[in-house]
Specification:
single chain; about 270 residues; alpha/beta; Rossmann fold; 2 domains; 4-stranded parallel β-sheet; globular
């Protein structure tokens, strides 16, 4: 049974945990502005000397996301806790694929992910050795069939997906993410290596999490909550996120069963 913390707040369970993995997009901000109650909760955790990671499936390096949060008005003491799926994938690419030719699938705003090895980028899909998917092209950001046609002759190549999210809400607008392209590629028979939640690598790279009592907080059942379930962490689902309409039209128990996930706690919005 999922416990609702809307009245008691995060403070009612904070003492039970040593480490908090907290999603950014949909929990701490909506892509446009910070959620004040959520940032207050982060400051309360700091005061309690609790470890937390702002763990986000953003296909960009840590520093890029920190600058984005700074523009939103987030203090440095909070920004310093950021760790991205982009950073995790970057560490892997530098180690295993730095000189291999790759074809980039995604918008220009993600170019800084491969700045250190940009000379390995191939503009010709046929000449590439692997596919680096950070998102969708700006001029094909809604049409997944475009990617099916683009990649159908290249399923022998490995795809590195730097954001397993299928969708994200930017304010009131829903957008497709890299995970949607990767899912199409897998269904065609291609191999995908994912970096980001729910996969263990991003959690383990972000902080020493051994022998810790851990709570994972997020709005996405496919990534935040599934990651918690796979790693045996407790979970807190933020209801006013990507599943808002589904939950409104049904209930948390039915929706979590649909996604084969276990939710320990829920809150409408993250608050102390």
């Amino acid at each position: 049974m999922t416990k609702n913390l809307d009245n008691e707040g995060l403070q009612s369970i904070a003492d039970n945990y040593d480490l908090f993995y907290i999603d950014l997009w949909g929990v701490v901000h909506n892509g446009i502005k910070l959620h004040e109650k959520a940032t207050l909760a982060l400051k309360k955790l700091l005061k309690m000397n609790k470890n937390f990671v702002l763990l986000t499936n953003a296909p960009r390096p840590n520093e890029t996301v920190k600058r984005f949060l700074e523009k939103m008005g987030m203090e440095k003491e909070l920004r310093d806790h950021v760790f991205t799926s982009g950073e995790a994938s970057l560490n892997y690419l530098k180690k295993f694929h730095q000189v291999d030719k790759f074809f980039h699938i995604g918008p220009p705003r993600d170019f800084d992910l491969f700045n250190d090895f940009k000379n390995s980028q191939s503009k010709d899909l046929n000449e590439s050795q692997y596919l680096l998917c950070t998102g969708l092209f700006d001029d094909h950001d809604q049409d997944l069939n475009y990617y099916k046609n683009l990649l159908e002759k290249h399923i022998n190549k490995k795809m590195i997906c730097t954001n397993p999210d299928l969708i994200v809400d930017r304010g009131n607008k829903r957008e497709l993410c890299a995970g949607s392209v990767a899912m199409i590629f897998e269904k065609m028979g291609g191999e995908v290596v994912y970096f980001g939640k729910p996969y263990a690598e991003v959690y383990n790279q972000s902080i020493d999490n051994s022998k810790k009592r851990i709570l994972s907080i997020g709005d996405n059942l496919n990534t935040d909550i599934k990651g918690a379930n796979l790693l045996n962490y407790d979970s807190l689902l933020i209801l006013n996120g990507v599943h808002k309409e589904e939950i409104k039209n049904s209930n948390i128990d039915k929706v979590s069963r649909q996604y084969e996930s276990i939710v320990n706690y829920m809150q409408s919005d993250l608050k102390w």
